[in-house]
Amino acid sequence: MRRSPLAARRLERSIHRRRARVGDITVCTRVEASNSLQALRLLMLGMVVLMGGYYAWHSRIPRKPCIAQLAELAAAKQTYALEHGLQVGDRIVIRDLLDARFKDVPHCPAGGAYVVGVVGELPTCSILTHQLPVR
Fold first, then answer.
1. Which of 71, 79, 109, 124 minimizes the C-alpha distance to 97?
2. Where exactly are the structural domains of the chain?
3. Is the pLDDT of residue 17 over 70?
4. Lowest-confidence range among 6-10, 88-92, 103-107?
5. How many whole angstroms separate alpha carbon 14 and alpha carbon 17?
6. What is the pLDDT of residues 63-92, one digit of tens each?
7. Which phi and psi angles does 88 have, rounded to 5°?
8. Which of 11, 58, 66, 115 has its CA 20 to 30 Å from the CA of residue 122?
């Protein structure tokens, strides 16, 4: 593959040869990391850090409404268990809680799924950061 004269000059500028004399042996080293490549690496690193911060911030936005719905589910679950005489360890399905409190099946604003679980445990969301604090 033939290079244009401009590309050949750029390549020559980016490749520096250093010679060091060690005893009777001449050692040639090639340094290919030019300033523009280092700047590009720093720019990419900055983008990774910023994007990670953005996604961490963005994933926290729907957390509070989710936890509020989990608290409502916990209260509805406790009420349902008392009204129907359920014991600790009895399973409750989310459809059992559909009444005046929930007109439709509640869902996590971030796209997670709720699991009501058994009597005596707190309901959970499939997103690990969306959990009710243990009392």
1. 79
2. 32-61, 63-125
3. no
4. 6-10
5. 10
6. 888 888 899 899 988 988 998 899 998 998
7. -60, 130
8. 58
The separation between CA 108 and the C-alpha centre of its own chain, rounded to angstroms, equals 16
Residue with tokens 């280092």: 38
Q: Are strands 16-22 and 25-31 parallel, antiparallel or unpaired?
A: antiparallel
- pLDDT, position 100: 60
Of 59, 14, 18, 19, the residue nearest 38 (C-alpha)? 14
Query: How far apart (Å, rounded) are the C-alpha atoms in residues 121 and 115?
Result: 11
Q: What is the DSSP string of 62-118?
A: THHHHHHHHHHHHHHHHHHHHHTTPPTT-B--GGGG-SSS-SS----TTS--EE--B
Tokens of 40: 């590009």
